[in-house]
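Dear Dr. H.,

I hope your travels went smoothly. While you were away I took the liberty of generating a structure for the chain from your last submission, since the lab meeting agenda had it listed for discussion. I wanted you to have the full record in hand beforehand rather than looking at slides cold. The sequence, exactly as received, is reproduced here:
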Amino acid sequence: MKIFKNIAFLCIATLVISSGCSLDRKPETTFSDASFWNTETDLKSACNRLYQQLAGYGIDNRADDSYGQDAGQNQISNGSRAVPNTSESDWNNPYDQIFTANNILEKGGKANVSEDIRNRYYAEAKFFRAYYYFLLVKKYGDVPLVMHTLDVGDAGLQMPRTPRAVVIDSIYADLDYAAKWLPLQSALPAADYGRVTKGAALAFEARVGLYEGTFAKFHGTDEDYKVNLQKAVDAASAVMQQNYYSLYPSYSGMFQHEADGPANKENVFVKVYGSNAIQNGTYTNVIVGHDNSRNMENGRFAPTRNLLSYYLCTDGLPWGISPETVPETSYNSIFENRDPRLGMTVYQMGEEAYKGPWVPNASAVRTGYACKKGFNLDDWNNLGKATVDKTLIRYAEVLLTYAEAKFELNGSISDADLDLTINKLRDRVNMPVHLTNSFVQTHGLDMRTEIRRERTVELALEGFRYDDIIRWKTAENLLPKDILGARYSADEWTGTQASSLNLTPDSILIVEPASKRVFDASKDYLYPVPLNEISLSGNQVTQNPNW
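The corresponding predicted structure, in token form, is as follows:
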């Protein structure tokens, strides 16, 4: 692994950050190991690097819910990617953070602190170690399990891949430790907002359990899917039983500045952004900022028609089947009589941040739909200085995890559990119809499909879709299809017209035809291992099947 080639200089100088996360900080390169690792401040400062390196806002066009300009992600989505020759961030970055976590766990014993304090920061390190191993497992399956720092010449540098189930067991062990020693969110000082808590560890364990349980169930692996699903149920239930977390009153507001900070009890774990001052509406001295709203506007990702099709009509029936389906005679027809979350996720023609006319196959917003969820005009006006926090785990996900895990574990779910979970999400947006067993039976629906639909809609464009269709083993059916956009009408698309348009007989924009999209189920459910990682390991690390 490339990470190990650089460990000679990865001392404490790499462990200190300069972020805006209200974390205690010391300048980089100030300390050596000999003078560090002595106090609680040292342990906290060492852990701070883990927060700095935590990925925040990003682009995810790997699935069928969005499309954009990132060639690498489009190649994953359409099946045209090749085995990389050199190491990629998908492989290297997690191991960088795992090294940092291992370093803290090995050297933190020197600190003159109580065991409770030491264990609290060990718990932070173990949470992040589990976090990054899960990223690796999702993409590569079996990966080398490195539980201590390695030096030049260490035999562990040529470690083979560890079986997936063993890595997952290690993840569970780290998260159990973290849940035991991390503070409750309710006990976290405001100045520490953004640090991991007991609730975050349990919620993440629920995420791992659901992913592994359903992956094992639908891919037929050797893992006991019921054990993993039970872990998901138990961990999600433990979060719910804390009686601390709740849904933020406004779904659209959940992704705006108004929802930032500890007062929002839907936030289970966030990456905190911030600035030192705001003068006359302009951000100044931004410590950590992002460009999320600009990315929405410039076409780096745009919702697809496939995503819009998942939103129910207000009678609780699927769009296209429901008698409330409105014929598409205009661009905005597709938004009528739909789950309110659709209008909170995708812009309609004429809204403030998306006023026509527009050329549908231009470089920006190629699908003809623009993302509204999380768009902030003030942040858009401050390039590189946007400061809306990025929610990494929110309580809505915990509720969805509980519902899906209960169903997949038992083959059924009670109305009481639906009321505890999915129907709370519907109530927040005043969706008129609840999901119940009798409603599903009366209308000939499928409960699994409806639970998955709710997850797709509630978590739309938050980076879950690709992982979901991978674990459900539905990517082989969904990804080879046309990527479709908005309905085109020359009367509505006034001004400069596109030079050419690829349209269906119903005048629906074909962004990428199925003829250019493939998914090889024998290999594409896992990423290829970079060739130089195989070489650096002395061929101990092997390639994934059929790559």
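Two observations you may find useful: Residues 1-55+71-182+518-547 form a domain with the Serine Threonine Protein Phosphatase 5, Tetratricopeptide repeat fold (CATH 1.25.40.890). The chain has a mean pLDDT of 88.

With kind regards,
E. W.
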